Amino acid sequence: MKKKEEFEVVTTLEGHENEVKSVAWAPSGNLLATCSRDKSVWVWEVDEEEEYECVSVLNSHTQDVKHVVWHPHQELLASASYDDSVKLYREEEDDWVCCATLEGHTSTVWSLAFDQSGEKLATCSDDKTLRIWRQTKAEEEQAVGGSKKDASWKCVCTLTGYHTRTVYDVSWSHLTGSLASGCGDDAIRIFEEDPGSDPLQSTFSLTAHMPRAHSQDVNCVAWHPKEPGLLASCSDDGDMAFWQYQRPE
Q1: How many structural domains does the chain have?
Q2: Residue 237: CATH number of its domain
Q3: Residues 135-161 pLDDT 10s
């Protein structure tokens, strides 16, 4: 019988003073972000010898930080918090700084996800809504040019009235553009951006609703990175489920 491979601890990173809630690799693999109930976001740098060094401790949030996610093409980091806000960070002059604060949710922001282009950011909240944020073209050009004023993101769509309890997670398919949510009402919902939607005032439609996807809260949803339409979900009921979604033509 072939012996099962075992995990080996390479290193342990310490420093947070409370529960660490989320961890995320930058696309380059050279940076790692962590966040915690201690209200902080830490950025770690990884060298060629796999040594980890904390290069910044960001204390921009006033409450627990629930989730961190990197921009798909840039070293731009986003975090979601119990303080009802989203923060964006980038490196400036060898230090990491908060370059934007996204406000609009009226309760805890649980999770967030960039679309494939990185031009849009979806956030989900205890206020039962999804929000879609977009950086305007002029601001994107400033960002490419290294401007210090590249911070403004605007909410271009609020999806309200669809969820009946806390929205715990959101996942944006980088293959199809489909947007999935996992909710405390045990349901999974999928949204699609309407064709011809105004980039500055986007509209999305609900295209799929699984009302009893699980028997308890849906904590996380994740699209497969290479197989279009394959969605995984997990729940307080102890189960994982896999769904095949067919986009409307």
Answers
A1: 2
A2: 2.130.10.10
A3: 876 544 444 444 444 448 999 999 999
